Amino acid sequence: MQRASRLKRELQMLSSEPPPGITCWQTEERIDDLRAQIVGGTETPYEGGVFTLEINVPERYPFEPPKIRFLTPIYHPNIDNSGRICHDALKLPPKGAWKPSLNISTVLTSIQLLMAEPNPDDPLMADISSEFKYNKQLFEEKARKWTQEHAVQKNKVTARVSSSTLASDANTQTHPVA
Amino acid sequence: MEGSDSVGQSGSDQPESPRRRQLDRLGREEAFYQFVNNLSNEDYRLMRDNNLLGTPGEATEDELFSRLQQIKDSPQQQNNTPNAENGEDPVEPPESFEDPASGDSLLDWLNTVRRTGNTTRTGHRGNQSWRAVSHTNPNSGDFRFSLEISVNRDLAELLILLLLLKGSSLEGQDVVANPPQVPMETEVVEESVVEELAVIVEPEPEVEEVVSQEILEPPSSPASLLAQRPLSPPRRGLRRPRSHSPEPRRTRARTARSRSPFNLDQLDSLSNQRHVHSSLGPSAATSNISVPQVEGSSRTRQHVLPRQGTTDGDVQPSRAAAESAPEVQNVTSQEGEAAVGDGGSTGRRPPTIMLDLQVRRVRPGEYRQRDSIASRTRSRSQNSNNTFLYESERGGFRRTFSRSERAGVRTYVSTIRIPIRRISDAGLGEATSMALQSMIRQIMTGFGELGYLMDSDSDSLDSNRGANTPADLADVLNNPGTTPAAAPTADVDDEPPVVAGVRARTAEIDVDEGLAAGPPASGGRARPRPPVSLEEPSSLPFLRLAHFFLLNDDDEDQPQGLTKEQIDNLSMRNFGESDALKTCSVCITEYAEGNKLRKLPCSHEYHVHCIDRWLSENSTCPICRRAVLVSANRESVV
């Protein structure tokens, strides 16, 4: 497939000019299994958190979208408990909007955007979605709590070492390349 | 083989030396682009349409080159219809049939096939790969042609179609003894999802014998039958019968027996079968028989037989079952006819030619054995939860269509039996020609039938999904062309002992799929099959078939791609120095001089090989998502 050469290029681009707040790297020499981290946007309930995602590149990429899911639990109307993301760029037409001119980087960016702006009208998690719609405060509270519990945790470890700083500091530390 | 091999490789190698593999792959991809760039337009098209390009990185440049040479050297086989079917490979066999469609040319074709000896051809197209294998036994004159198609839809799923054509020499020789062995089919099944389509055209002579014997016995003493079958080793089973009762074989055409995938059921249905037997005997010839199980079992046998040689261990259980399965019913109708004619002549083939069309989908993990047939058999027997069978007879042709489904595995079997008056005798006289012609037609029809099914489905796709409804089925059944009697069905598994009559009930209802094969073609020798037009170049029955099943199963939003013609209508140019630097957004590679670009109506450009592939499955521009097709049509209109 075109996958190999294209992915190679994509990874180069991702490392040379990564989109802000996003890192992506290859795991264990396997080109079809990537990891990415998205930093929770400021002024969102995810601020301070670092969310890890798993990216699976199908054999037929780029004719098929990459399969992406959150490894880090996240409280979000469009992301379910197992980390699956309801996002049209991750699906093939006619249902979805994947097209070969998209790439890992753009898809991650759009996920970042989705985090900042959930789409409650196309919910994956109905409860969270209605909460988001009708009780935003509660939603944000919960989302923040989840972020603290799950997305900041790893950082705490490293943070502790360097004398328990807050997540924001930890972020920079844990962020390898970015 | 290549197809499956490569699949296997990618699976297994990856973990081991991923890095090196990746490097190799990259190198090959570069070479691929290089190669494509240097192709002339015709060559490019030729290769693309024949699925020879594969995907970048899959084959080395040398391999690609040799493929090109190969195809150029054998234009008659692949080129003859530049645009149409070949590309879709699977269809080849049918095509070939078609060409010779008149008079003795059919014979020629058959003979050609026979003489081709053992060859294997493979190809890829998009996410599909196919392999065609012909195998001839010089001694017996038996030949076999098989075609496998695998479609990789998803990472996980693989679809395989298997086309199997089997025949014995047309000459009068007695081929009785040797079961044709076809090694190749087996491999197919490696993938998770497998669809097999098997078409077997077989003069019955050889294998059947065995069956007959068995069959004969069962009716009289069921118990004995049971006992016997299990005892005999699966493979041998066939032979053994032969030796025992040579005569029986001849008599009845072995017609249906082995083919059926259902065999497993046999045990359960033994009692039934017998019933069937008796009942069938009389009526079978003329009207449809509704004994699904039996048939199934009988058919299975045949399949099993040939293959058994090939595969042993895994399948045994099933085989045993198969053996035990009574092939009985089949014998009834056709054989009756056949028997009449041939009775004594040793050397003669049974007058019947069988055509078998099987489609099956297997989920991953269902089985992995090499021998697809065997596995088929096995799974069949074990699960026939939902089996429906349709039979019709007309003008001496009897056709059966059945479908069974069981967790994850759905099998469709279409069998057409054509009595032929002694091919062996007279050389290729008028009668023979006729017979062959009709046979071919039958074959075509068989395809068409499937195509029809597919069509209806796809139609439904576009307009309404309703195609599957019972109503449709009914239509099919009623189809004027179709046989007078049709309709029997049965759930084999569930109710073993039931007599044929009972079974009939189920059929229509069960068939939600609309699969009820239209019997239309069966009758007609020459007449073009109505519903499905083979002629339609762009849609190969096989592909559509695959599509159909895929659709049926999971998502219906399978994107619709463009046809080759439509793609070819889009403009194409070579990238020149003067052009501004641009990048193909499919492969994210900058265009180099000499690259072939295709420009969509929306003015976006891509490498031809990049965009062609996308368009074969989708109909929108990868950048702006504008529909390519609409504009394309407009253009052509202008």
TrEMBL record, chain A:
<feature type="compositionally biased region" description="Polar residues">
    <location>
        <begin position="160"/>
        <end position="178"/>
    </location>
</feature>
<keyword id="KW-0833">Ubl conjugation pathway</keyword>
<dbReference type="InterPro" id="IPR000608">
    <property type="entry name" value="UBC"/>
</dbReference>
<protein>
    <recommendedName>
        <fullName>Ubiquitin-conjugating enzyme E2 T</fullName>
        <ecNumber>2.3.2.23</ecNumber>
    </recommendedName>
</protein>
<keyword id="KW-0067">ATP-binding</keyword>
<feature type="region of interest" description="Disordered">
    <location>
        <begin position="157"/>
        <end position="178"/>
    </location>
</feature>
<dbReference type="GO" id="GO:0005524">
    <property type="term" value="F:ATP binding"/>
</dbReference>
<dbReference type="Pfam" id="PF00179">
    <property type="entry name" value="UQ_con"/>
</dbReference>
<keyword id="KW-0808">Transferase</keyword>
<dbReference type="InterPro" id="IPR016135">
    <property type="entry name" value="UBQ-conjugating_enzyme/RWD"/>
</dbReference>
<keyword id="KW-0547">Nucleotide-binding</keyword>
<dbReference type="InterPro" id="IPR050113">
    <property type="entry name" value="Ub_conjugating_enzyme"/>
</dbReference>
<feature type="domain" description="UBC core">
    <location>
        <begin position="2"/>
        <end position="152"/>
    </location>
</feature>
<dbReference type="GO" id="GO:0061631">
    <property type="term" value="F:ubiquitin conjugating enzyme activity"/>
</dbReference>
From TrEMBL, chain B:
<dbReference type="GO" id="GO:0008270">
    <property type="term" value="F:zinc ion binding"/>
</dbReference>
<keyword id="KW-0808">Transferase</keyword>
<feature type="region of interest" description="Disordered">
    <location>
        <begin position="460"/>
        <end position="495"/>
    </location>
</feature>
<feature type="region of interest" description="Disordered">
    <location>
        <begin position="210"/>
        <end position="351"/>
    </location>
</feature>
<dbReference type="GO" id="GO:0005634">
    <property type="term" value="C:nucleus"/>
</dbReference>
<feature type="compositionally biased region" description="Low complexity">
    <location>
        <begin position="1"/>
        <end position="14"/>
    </location>
</feature>
<dbReference type="Pfam" id="PF25914">
    <property type="entry name" value="RNF6_N"/>
</dbReference>
<keyword id="KW-0479">Metal-binding</keyword>
<feature type="compositionally biased region" description="Acidic residues">
    <location>
        <begin position="86"/>
        <end position="98"/>
    </location>
</feature>
<keyword id="KW-0863">Zinc-finger</keyword>
<dbReference type="InterPro" id="IPR013083">
    <property type="entry name" value="Znf_RING/FYVE/PHD"/>
</dbReference>
<dbReference type="Pfam" id="PF13639">
    <property type="entry name" value="zf-RING_2"/>
</dbReference>
<dbReference type="InterPro" id="IPR058896">
    <property type="entry name" value="RNF6/12_N"/>
</dbReference>
<dbReference type="GO" id="GO:0006511">
    <property type="term" value="P:ubiquitin-dependent protein catabolic process"/>
</dbReference>
<comment type="similarity">
    <text>Belongs to the RNF12 family.</text>
</comment>
<dbReference type="GO" id="GO:0061630">
    <property type="term" value="F:ubiquitin protein ligase activity"/>
</dbReference>
<feature type="compositionally biased region" description="Polar residues">
    <location>
        <begin position="73"/>
        <end position="84"/>
    </location>
</feature>
<protein>
    <recommendedName>
        <fullName>RING-type E3 ubiquitin transferase</fullName>
        <ecNumber>2.3.2.27</ecNumber>
    </recommendedName>
</protein>
<keyword id="KW-0862">Zinc</keyword>
<dbReference type="GO" id="GO:0016567">
    <property type="term" value="P:protein ubiquitination"/>
</dbReference>
<keyword id="KW-0833">Ubl conjugation pathway</keyword>
<comment type="pathway">
    <text>Protein modification; protein ubiquitination.</text>
</comment>
